[in-house]
Amino acid sequence: MDVTISPSRVEGRARAPPSKSYTHRAILAAGYGAEATVLNPLVSADTKATMRAVDAFGGETDLSADESRLTVAGFDGRPDVPDDVVNCENSGTTMRLVTACAALGDGLTVLTGDDSLRSRPQGPLLEAVSELHGRGESTRRNGQAPLVVGDGMTGGTVSIPGDVSSQYITALLMAGAVTDEGIDIELETELKSAPYVDITLELLADYGIETTTTDEGFSVPGGQSYDPAGGEYEVPGDFSSISYLLAAGAVAAADGERVVVEGARPSAQGDSAIVDVVREMGADVAWDHDAGELTVSQASLSGTTVDVGDTPDLLPTIATLGAVADGDTVIENCEHVRYKETDRVRAMAEELGKMGAEVTEEEDRLTIHGGRTDLAGATVDGRHDHRIVMSLAVAGLVADGETTVTGAEHVDVSFPNFFETMASLGASVQRS
Ligand SMILES: O=C(O)C1=C[C@@H](OP(=O)(O)O)[C@@H](O)[C@H](O)C1
Ligand SMILES: C=C(OP(=O)(O)O)C(=O)O
């Protein structure tokens, strides 16, 4: 599906979807336990992949008709060996978290995914599984899926790089809690995307799992049971998704009007940094923490410098903001953003370039030279990547002429009703 955005002004209220990161963890944590209900889960292509994996391991996930409750009968500590290959589709989080879980099984699990996921790095996690006495292999021996994992990972001490994906750490912490020995993780390099491990530690504590942060990294004792207080866990709103709504308001709110984003209660999400980024660029953003509401109006933005080491998923949104702002926006520490659904550093450089933006791409830095030319509508490639699609759609609100984003259906990965939400704010959106 392609979506064509015409220049539009936006106003009104919109609710961000529940957090993808919390939902994945909440579902798998419930799977590791005996029984739990996940309230307000994100129901999207990626989180459905995690639900299917829990089912494949012998759990049972049951979504209420209004999708507000997911009841999970867990596999209680030890996953069954799945009857079939587990397809994680487009979801890196599913593949990493499920790899460490599958490694606990007595037999072998085969994991695969779509073209994008089969090109993403899994090698360090496979090596960690092997170091912990399980089997972790890439069928093509290139560190990428398809993967073969299992043979009863036992636990112990493992060293792993921190600068490829924090999801390896999350995966090992979640699985480590149900091993006999527990797992001590020593980071070989500086941890990138660190707030995602904070999300994990917070959620594990809420499921009654003890963890510690050590001088070398992280540690989780074994022999623990997953059991959230009251048998329920509630998922907060998603700040990566909020970033598109906030950016839409900052670049295109109607004169004297505001965009109010609901579902913005504070949590461990590093991507709440988008609030400060938008403020730093010159927009007035009010954040009512108790109500979980962000209010933004349109402003003339100016460039800024942002280190996205902790917040890789914000890069596409910040690049769009930079293309609308005056002056240079410098996005630093972004090499790991190249290992996502697509190489997002290159994708944003090239696609914003098609809209007339001047962009300089370096290995670890993206500079958008805003204000030199006005953005012009163009046909841009969403690169089969939800975040690229949504960021380019926001740019389309203020480009001169129509912007057509290809592959727009990929918003299904994290924000299934993104285009309906944008249209409800007044954006002109046409599907073809
Ligand atoms: O753990 C998570 O929920 C995520 C961690 C981040 O990935 P990396 O740790 O691979 O950077 C982030 O980009 C991804 O969207 C979600
Ligand atoms: C990179 C992302 O997710 P994942 O790693 O789960 O595919 C994302 O949502 O931007």
Describe the model.
Helices cover 30% and strands 23% of the residues. It is built from twelve helices and 24 strands. Strands 22-23-1-24 form a four-stranded mixed beta sheet. A hairpin with a 3-residue loop joins strand 12 (212-213) and strand 13 (217-220). The protein is globular and about 60 Å long. Bound molecules: shikimate-3-phosphate and phosphoenolpyruvate. The site of phosphoenolpyruvate (PEP) has 10 residues, from helix 3.
Give the distinct bound molecules: shikimate-3-phosphate, phosphoenolpyruvate
Q: In the CATH hierarchy, what is the superfamily of the largest domain? A: Enolpyruvate transferase domain
Rg (CA only): 21 Å
> Gap between N and C termini, in Å?
6 Å
Mean pLDDT: 98
CATH class of the largest domain: Alpha Beta
Beta strands, count: 24
Q: Count the helices. How many? A: 12
Binding site for 3-phosphoshikimate: 20-21, 25, 165-167, 193, 313, 340
Pathway: Metabolic intermediate biosynthesis; chorismate biosynthesis; chorismate from D-erythrose 4-phosphate and phosphoenolpyruvate: step 6/7
Keywords: Amino-acid biosynthesis, Aromatic amino acid biosynthesis, Cytoplasm, Transferase
InterPro entries: Enolpyruvate_Tfrase_dom (IPR001986), Enolpyruvate_Tfrase_sf (IPR036968), EPSP_synthase (IPR006264), EPSP_synthase_CS (IPR023193), RNA3'P_cycl/enolpyr_Trfase_a/b (IPR013792)
